[in-house]
Amino acid sequence: MAKLPSKVHLNSHPICLRIRGTSVFEDEDDRKWLHLFMETGGVLQVRLHQEDIPRGHIALTTSPLTSSIMPLIWWLQPGGPYMDHMYRFWRIVHHIKEDGVEEMMLELIDNS
Question: Which residue(s) pair with 47 in the sheet?
Answer without folding.
Answer: 36, 105
